[in-house]
């Protein structure tokens, strides 16, 4: 399969409507890919806390409309990164959206682990409550977002739910870039799954972004890694490698804590 990670630059100078149109154009350009991934909170910015409340949108808002049309035009599965979702009956959420090649919004994931400790996302956003996977013809996607990478129990739950490809959009800052790469490799190795981690580039709200989107295979090997600037990282790999890795090195069979992986007889 072919996956394209769009490491979009986010800056304060570009209005959200213009960035939305530019992101849609980049998605449409990925015809021939099977899966396209955008970063976390790219319409407003992952650290632009002061814009979130006013700029929040519903799941049938302008970003969803633009991404649905782009997925349909390119004929790709599109993980459109995440938006600030306005829930009419609750708080705002950091919500990822997955579109099928016909443009239908088929899966959403509200970020469970909110970053900021006593400020920012941790204070103003609600926490998701559901583990979300997305079956496709090339394998089951497990959905996580940015700070989620630091919590291995979420990824074990995604593993037990059948995930083979772990998709992680992010707005990860440059000052902790080494954590980003290390955690992406760790999650791939421990779950024996592919990790497709798509970060933002640029600087917004005074926070420089790390870039360095990365695709890691089930053995923890980095198949491709972006630089610090905006780029489209495209990589081809065989999703069947997940099954081969789990069969050749059946470490998951020896789990003693939590829910054990099913034993194949």
TrEMBL record:
<dbReference type="GO" id="GO:0016746">
    <property type="term" value="F:acyltransferase activity"/>
</dbReference>
<keyword id="KW-0012">Acyltransferase</keyword>
<feature type="domain" description="CN hydrolase">
    <location>
        <begin position="1"/>
        <end position="239"/>
    </location>
</feature>
<dbReference type="InterPro" id="IPR001110">
    <property type="entry name" value="UPF0012_CS"/>
</dbReference>
<dbReference type="InterPro" id="IPR036526">
    <property type="entry name" value="C-N_Hydrolase_sf"/>
</dbReference>
<keyword id="KW-0378">Hydrolase</keyword>
<dbReference type="GO" id="GO:0016787">
    <property type="term" value="F:hydrolase activity"/>
</dbReference>
<comment type="similarity">
    <text>Belongs to the carbon-nitrogen hydrolase superfamily. NIT1/NIT2 family.</text>
</comment>
<dbReference type="Pfam" id="PF00795">
    <property type="entry name" value="CN_hydrolase"/>
</dbReference>
<keyword id="KW-0808">Transferase</keyword>
<protein>
    <submittedName>
        <fullName>Acyltransferase</fullName>
    </submittedName>
</protein>
<dbReference type="InterPro" id="IPR003010">
    <property type="entry name" value="C-N_Hydrolase"/>
</dbReference>
């Amino acid at each position: 399969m072919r996956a394209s990670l769009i490491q979009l630059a986010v800056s304060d100078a570009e209005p959200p409507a213009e960035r939305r149109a530019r992101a849609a154009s980049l998605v449409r350009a990925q015809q021939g890919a099977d899966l396209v991934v955008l970063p976390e909170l790219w319409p407003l910015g992952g650290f632009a806390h002061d814009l979130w409340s006013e700029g929040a949108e519903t799941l049938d808002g302008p970003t969803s409309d633009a991404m649905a049309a782009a997925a349909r035009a390119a004929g790709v599965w599109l993980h459109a990164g995440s938006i600030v979702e306005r829930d009419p009956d609750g708080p705002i959420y950091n919500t990822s959206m997955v579109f099928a090649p016909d443009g239908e919004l088929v899966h959403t994931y509200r970020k469970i682990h909110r970053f900021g400790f006593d400020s920012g996302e941790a204070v103003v956003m609600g926490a998701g409550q559901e583990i979300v996977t997305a079956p496709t013809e090339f394998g089951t996607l497990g959905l996580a977002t940015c700070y989620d990478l630091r919590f291995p129990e979420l990824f074990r739950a995604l593993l037990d739910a059948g995930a083979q490809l772990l998709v992680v959009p992010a707005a990860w800052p440059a000052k902790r870039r080494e954590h980003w790469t290390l955690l992406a490799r760790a999650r791939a190795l421990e779950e024996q799954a592919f990790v497709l981690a798509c970060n933002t580039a640029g600087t917004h709200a005074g926070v420089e972004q790390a870039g360095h989107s990365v695709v890691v295979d089930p053995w923890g090997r980095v198949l491709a890694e972006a630089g610090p600037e905006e780029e489209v990282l495209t990589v081809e790999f065989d999703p069947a490698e997940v099954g081969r890795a789990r069969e050749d090195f059946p470490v998951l069979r020896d789990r003693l804590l939590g829910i054990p992986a099913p034993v194949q007889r």
